[in-house]
Design a protein that fits this description.
This protein has 321 residues and is α+β, with helices and mostly antiparallel strands. It is built from 8 helices and 15 strands. The mean pLDDT is 84.
Length: 321
């Protein structure tokens, strides 16, 4: 493996500060360990974490600066309409734009990983790389928390998620898609009704491009069939033949719960950062290593908000599936 020749000066300073405890006798040994720390941190940034459903369903925005503690956005509603008038009319109808402001908090997230005295000495003596598993676990933990916020929010911090946001519209559908009595034709009609609901409520300003469903409902869409001119095809294939621009994403967070606290089993919407987003002004970041007792510790931080839905008319959720 090609030797990693770079090192973070802050990491080197921390290593050299604790060189006696770490068993370092020469400066080149300290540089070796600083390079190792930098190598591990660089590899952690390079590793692609598995797709997390929440960050697939909700676009990520980084518009807000990382030092901010909150951000405010404004939603607008157009009221009034034009009418035919006669000459010299003085009663032209008034139109206006009304708006309201919403403020969302931003909260910092953090965890840490470290290497003990023995681990550092072994890497130094053997000339081997420090294990990356700890750092990958730290990154995964932060990514999972951001993903959870995107899906279900966080009650303690007043965050709403995609599945429980109060600005989600509702469309009544036939019934539970998973039961045998619900036919493929009925499910197709439900999907078309949800698609049309977005078009109608937004006056054609928004066209859905994403269907978010519970995995059990996805199974129904691909396993139940409709008869189209003597040809049988799955519900989803039939729907895509009519609206080919819609992508389906399945998320377990959309599964109905036993206590019915979550009944949002399907959401049809136009997935666009202008319609909804989660702000992540500070993505996963690793700070310089610090000497703490008999180990070198790397703190990891991030910052995010709850989900903001700027244009509620671009989304609708099912009721009754």
């Amino acid at each position: 493996m090609k030797q990693h020749m770079n090192y973070d000066a802050a990491d080197l300073a921390a290593v050299m500060e604790g060189k006696e405890r770490l068993g370092i006798e020469r400066e080149d040994e300290g540089i070796f360990l600083a390079r190792q720390l930098d190598f591990v941190k660089a590899r952690i940034y390079e590793v692609q974490t598995p797709n997390l459903t929440g960050l697939q369903l909700v676009p990520v925005s980084t518009e807000v600066p990382e030092w901010a503690e909150s951000f405010t956005y404004r939603t607008y509603d157009e009221v009034g309409m034009a009418k035919f008038i006669s000459n010299y009319a003085d009663d032209l109808p008034r139109v206006d734009v009304t708006g309201k402001e919403e403020t969302l908090k931003l909260k910092s997230i953090g965890d840490a990983y470290g290497y003990s005295l023995d681990e550092m000495r072994l890497a130094n003596a053997m000339g081997t790389n420090l294990a990356e598993r700890k750092g990958r676990t730290a990154r995964r933990a932060i990514d999972q928390l951001v993903n959870k916020v995107a899906l279900v929010g966080d009650t303690a911090h007043g965050f709403y998620g995609f599945t429980n946001h109060p600005n989600l519209g509702e469309t009544a559908v036939t019934g539970d898609w998973t039961v045998a009595a619900t036919t493929g034709d009925a499910i197709l009609a439900d999907l078309l009704a949800m698609y049309d609901a977005v078009l109608v409520q937004s006056y054609d300003n928004h066209a859905p491009n994403t269907l978010a469903v519970a995995p059990t409902r996805r199974s129904a869409l691909v396993s139940k069939n409709v008869n189209s001119g003597g040809q049988f095809q799955s519900v989803w294939s039939a729907f895509q033949a009519i609206h080919p621009g819609v992508t389906m994403i399945a998320s377990t967070e959309l599964e109905p719960t036993a206590d019915n606290s979550n009944v949002s089993t399907a959401v049809m919407y136009e997935r666009d950062v202008d319609n909804l987003s989660i702000e992540v002004p500070r993505p996963f970041e690793q700070l310089p290593a610090e000497k703490r007792n008999l180990e070198m510790v790397i703190d990891c931080i991030a910052k995010c908000s709850g989900v903001a839905i700027y244009r509620p008319l671009a989304l609708t959720k099912s009721v009754g599936v």
